[in-house]
Design a protein that fits this description.
137 residues, mainly beta, Rieske Iron-sulfur Protein, 5-stranded antiparallel β-sheet, 3-stranded antiparallel β-sheet, globular, binds FE2/S2 (inorganic) cluster
């Protein structure tokens, strides 16, 4: 697992979301009630951006046709056989990191590594700024 730095914590207040691009993946990152959740941005239905969706009771709702996904598990509420990808999130020195799987890569050491080696840190572009501060999820 490789963790990539996404954004400063202060730039993603409670109730906000951003969409980031890391490697070939688009990821929607939410601050839901003070906890960060990262989920594949593309809806399994027709690919609409889940990062622009709203959240109800820990479930993100696609802005297009309202398919629903559990933020913690990626389970699709419309179809128990469908599940979207979720990503581990860590906070380190005021920044938010998302874990990406690396083919043939190292496994994380220990249960909760206390710090990230500098070789694992690099920035990923934010392709959608945090939403309007007055708008709630
Ligand atoms: S594209 Fe998400 S519900 Fe249709």
């Amino acid at each position: 697992m490789k963790y990539v730095r996404v954004i400063k914590q202060e730039d993603l207040p409670v109730g906000k979301s951003i969409i980031v691009s890391a490697k070939d993946e688009e990821i929607a990152l939410f601050n839901y009630k003070g906890k960060y959740h990262a989920i594949a941005n593309k809806c399994l239905h027709k690919g609409s951006p889940l990062g622009e969706g709203r959240i109800e009771e820990g479930v993100v709702i696609c802005p297009n046709h309202e398919w629903r996904y559990d933020l913690r598990t990626g389970d699709c509420m419309q179809n128990p056989y469908m599940k979207t990808k979720i990503y581990p999130v860590k906070v380190h020195k005021g920044a938010i990191y998302i874990g990406l799987e690396v083919e043939g890569g190292n496994k994380p050491l220990g249960k909760t590594p206390s710090s990230l080696p500098s070789s694992l840190k690099f920035s990923v572009p934010v392709i959608q700024k945090p939403r309007n501060p007055d708008e709630e999820l």
